[in-house]
Amino acid sequence: MAKSPDFLTAPLVVQLTDSHLFASQESRLLGLDTGYSLERVVEQVRIEQPDIDLILASGDLAQDSTLEAYQRFHDATASLAAPARWLPGNHDKVDVMAAFCAGTDLMDPVLDLGAWRLILLDSTIKGAVPGRFEPDQLELLERALSEAPERPTLVSFHHHPVPVGCQWMDLLGLQNPEALFAVLDRFKQVRVVLWGHIHQEYDEVRNGVRLLASPSTGLQFEPGSDDFKVGIQAPGYRWLRLQPDGSLETGISRVEGVDFGIDFNGSGY
Fold this sequence. Notes:
The strands form 2 sheets. A 6-stranded mixed sheet has the order 4-5-6-7-9-8, with helices on one face. The chain is 20% helix and 21% strand. The chain contains 5 helices and 11 strands; from the N terminus they run E-H-E-H-E-H-E-E-H-E-H-E-E-E-E-E. It has 269 residues and is α/β, with parallel strands linked by helices.
C-alpha cells in the first residue's frame, strides 16, 4: 500500500526554550529584558524559517508563572503563524499553564507530524528545580511508542537526562533518567531526545539516539562551568527538519550584534 502524502513530507520544527518571561514588561532577569530577547529571536526565526510546521516551546516559558507571562509568550510567537505545543519547566506552574491553555491543543502530549511522532512529557517536580518522571508520564511514553512502531519518534521534555559537563547544572537535571531510558531502549523507532533547561547547546548520540539541547531565547549558561556562570553566547533557537526516512537535519541560530544589557556577574537566577 502506498504511503500517504503526509509520510513523504519533511516537517520543520522550531524549538524555543527557556524564555523566562514576567508578567511585567519592566522586570529583568540579571539585567536582561527577556521579552525583548524573545522578540529578537522570533524576528530571526521569521526571517530564516518562512515555512514552519510546529513551534515547540520546551519549558520555562515564564519566570513568574503568571497568566500574564503566558499571554506575553503567546503574543510574541503569534507572528510565526504555525501550530505550537508547550511543555512545562521548573519555573512554570503546570496548573497555571494548563489554565491558560484550556480549550486549545497547546499542551496535547502526542502529535503526529509527517512520518514522525512527537511525544511531549512533563518532567517537573512541583516546587523543585530538578526533574523527575512520575509513573503516569512513563506510562504515557510507553503507550505512545507502542501505538506507532512504524513512526520515527522525537521525545521532548524540559530537564536533561544525561550529564552535560556543568557541575552545578548536573545536580539539577532529571533524577530518574534510568527509568526514562528503560523505556526508550526498548523502542527502536526513537530517533531524537530533545530538552531545554541547560541554556546551552548540546549534541551527542546514545545508543543511536540523538540527544539535543538548545540555547535559551534569553540568558545563556557558560558551558563547562563548575559554578553558576552566565554565558557570553547570544540568545537563539534550534530548528529541526524531520525527514520521512527517519533521519534528522538540525542546527542552531543565534541573534548576533545586540547588547542585551546582561549582568555577567550574577550568581544565580
